[in-house]
## 1
Amino acid sequence: MARNYRDITVTAVILTVCATFCRTAEAEDWPQFLGSGRNGICSETGLISEFPAAGPELLWKQPLGVGMSSVAVSEGLAVTLFQDGTSQYVAAFDVSQGTPKWQTAVAPAFQNAMGNGPRATPTIAAGLVHVYTGEGVLAQLDFETGKLNWTVNVPGSLGGRPAEYGVACSPVVTEELVIVQAGCPQAATAAWKISDGQLQWKSGSAKSGYASPLLTTLAGREQLVVFNAAGAAGLDPASGQQFWNFPFPTEYDCNTATPVRLTNQQLLISAGENHGSVLLQIEKQGTEMAATSVWSSLGTDSQLRAEWQTPVVHDGYLYALDNQGSAGPITNLVCIRLSDRTTMWKKSRFGKSNLILADGKLWISTMKGELVLAMASPESYQELARCTLIETTRQAPVISNGRLYLRDDHELLCLKVTAKN
């Protein structure tokens, strides 16, 4: 049957709107450490499954200074921290062309035997950027302009000292508060008002360790899960009241990987230095809550010793980097079935790396500066592509709106990772 011009035009408009909506629905910002869910998972689909030896298409790159901070992406800006010989800076780049938008100094340069510069990743929320520098300066900036609104020296104001290897906790932001691990004798964790930078609460007494907190719901209650040098705990994010705690001390206070929420009642904590992993069951007990171990794999024969890399979960399986030895050079890539904690496969001596999950694939950055693409499959380790893009890095890749971001101590790269139509 013949169709008139108006019908064709209306159909074309509808298809264009639908296509635009679908692309928008699939696109995703990465506004904080480990993404919007703080779990290392990007929900975008339609991403590449291979790339040439030279790597995915380079969209842009910009010079950058020293730092271990990853990248946060929101509303068209990519934000990270770095330092030069004098200061630590927060810098924002336009994601389309890589054009620098603003750069703001927030603290003096930070020197440390384990590596110089800032470690934590910015958190972007409600038109603001919150950052935490290498020596523990918490700062708030305007997202659009980079204007510095307020700063507070966390250990200095709370009678403590910075973590031995540098402050690595990425801030958690709620509607009214910004929360970090303080690591002070009378303030393991503390919260400041977003409005004016005034201290709202402090909780616990422990060194900070190097993990970033997780804001989640366990046993039906929203809580802030902290993992410090003493172990894990669940806190009321509004008041700092402790709901539960689980001792988990490690050598050198190196509880570094963020806890992983597995179900409404289960939480995985893991640490390197030959320590291992524990699966916690979080339950209500009357008006109180408790955390009990329902499975553990500890010591030199542990199935998982996450050194500083947070594991990811996909379709009932955990994918993670397992560090063998006390701060040793051997790191294995493993897949563990969560239902019975069976190790499905292990890629021995994969190398020190970091990973995220997107489109059913593992996107891995190695300390050698490689980008590795592998299937997230329990059947076997299936590598799809590998290339060298940068120099030494500890940052996991970041994927947002079809772009992958990766950085080292010299530059920030933005790569196209959407599959061709």
## 2
Amino acid sequence: MKRIAIIGGGISGLAVLHYLKQRFGDTVEITLFEREATTGGTIRSIKKDSCLFEWGPNGFLDNQPYTLQLIKELGAADQLIEARPRAKRRYIQIRGGQRAVPWELPFKDKWSLVRGLFKKNISKDHSIDDYVSQRFSPSIAESLADPFIRGIWAGDIKRLHMASAFPDLKFKWFKNFRMRSFKGGMGEIIESLDKRYKQHIQTDCEISSAQINADVIIVATPAYAAAKIVEHLNPVLARVLDQIPYAPVAVAGLLFKQDAFKNKPDGFGYLVPSGANKEILGVLIESNVYEGRAARGQIMVRVMLGGAHHPAIINDSQDQILGKAIREMDSVYGLLANPIETFVKLWPKAIPQYEINYPFLRQSIAEQCAKTPGLYLCANYLGGVSFNDCIKNARSLSGAVII
């Protein structure tokens, strides 16, 4: 019987396992190896008493049919929830105050947005900063694109490559896509995949491709981990993978009583532009976004810190991260009491950065993989960093495997 080995049990690896089992059934032996005690990678939902803390992504847009189809196939569709209507109110922090996007932007910026929609032939082979400045205005790049990119990529718009970060971006009237999650948090989809394919998953198993006897090896780990795994198979590929940078992110979860604020937190939360020179990337009011994140009379928030502009966050202790998060909440909302529960998760290498040289790296990765029969790569440093991207790319790769 032919054998397929998947190394890495994050959402990419688990989704690949699902699609390969759909394709091959029991005609091929498929095993997933995960070095940690549990699968899920950056996705985990921590439940404690009355609150729920997401230490990674807190949801996804329902604009990707493959994601919704996967959830149905796992029998988890009845656990889906939508973001609350109040989450539609989103803010950007400008000079210490909160401005609703896009309604409270200055008129000149609103006009730049409208005018830019009709511009044609703006090359995307530039940094995001250059592209947005040319299409809209430098002001839009600074006040809107910058905090938006910090919120998604934790990155620097002057270094990220527009065509790589947003290859399919088209300016048109956007449909009313919704933010979705699960009643018990994003960890539910990991639990569903884990439960269904438990007999094909080995955890607490750090392994290299040299130790695996398989006809096909699919490496579904971050680039820096993949570099070590494939080194003996293709040293050139390993060196290329090692060149992909990652931005660090610290996530602080704070649970407050509702009356702990002078000014009650509103809407989805807010993002912070890099010009503010703060370690804070943004604040999400989780209990405003989804049900079940805090009990009645409580407010659950997540504060994101670090990113490409502030990599030194990796040197902070948990207490230091919590202190910075609490001071941010106090400066914006005015705290009358400390949080009643706290959580911290530090990701020293959280999000891959598709920087200006990324097209060259991506091409080199493809060329080297073509020279290494039986080796495939599937992770968020290829084809997009979002939860939806990971599902879509896993499905595509699973159909391309030759065995």
